[in-house]
Amino acid sequence: MSEELKKINDIVKKESVFIDALLEEAKKVIVGQTYVLERLLIGVLTGGHVLLEGVPGLGKTLSIKTLSQVLKLDFKRIQFTPDLLPADVIGTLIYNQQTNEFSPKLGPIFSNLVLADEINRAPAKVQSALLEAMQERQVTLGDKTYQLPDPFLVLATQNPIEQEGTYTLPEAQVDRFLMKLRVTYPKKHEEKEILMRASQGGNAHSTKINAIVSGEAVLKARKIVDQIYVDDRIKDYILDLVYATRDPESYNLHSLKPLIEYGASPRASIFMVQAAKAHAFIRKRGYVTPEDIKAIGKDIFRHRIVPSFEAEAEEMDSDAIIDAIFAEIEVP
Fold first, then answer.
1. In what helix (H) or strand (E) does residue 272 lie, and over which residues does it extend?
2. What φ, ψ does residue 114 adopt, rounded to 5°?
3. Which of 57, 110, 148, 325 is the most buried (most CB within 10 A)?
């Protein structure tokens, strides 16, 4: 290990000690769901927005709310409904008759952590209002632009698209999410623990949670994450994975060609590096390994690969396509 790499490795080991304390505090409320909590942390450490998909009752909203409690950050929850208006999210201008001027009334988007609950229940006009905030970290009201606080993060939940009363999110908005997580049912022993807590009068919403990390510490951790070493072979591995989604035949994945309508965008490459660095930080390493790429690969690609009608006919979803790509591409 070179001197430079050893130095960043030692820094990461020292500065990442809060991760264990943070996860331990969150588990006072959340049973299981380590995967979800770690991925939400990756979002916090990279400044990338995270989309959680799953049927109701799996603790998506509770996980995000708990994360906001262990972080000393401003938190706002927006319940997305079919009658929601853009002004309900980003704010609006209010006319003052006494001064004959318009004054801004900033919406709940002006917060460090924004929970967009059931985001796919609101129509396209509301979704489009989020685009500028998610990409440029700013909001325009009238002819003036307002900067959002730093750190700023949108953590969104959605029910599966097939459920009644939901809208498909625009591709431009979906691509702005760092990761899309699939939240599944708890394991049997985890659900037993949930039952035991409930039968003993335990209430997740009344459990006292201590704040572990401040906003300043989050911004400091982000700077350290940026310094984590990524070898050129790892970068080539990432590029091979991304290009295999666009041109699978070049990687001897001929059977996947008719199954992919659109491959991953350039954001996939950028976000893969950022998320892999954050995953290495959580694992207390100052360098990225292929295991980091494999761990977060599905979450990065899942919403960026559009399966074709043929794939749907063969009941092949994006996860199955990603598995086939990872199985074929040579690991450095």
1. helix 266-282
2. -115, 120
3. 325
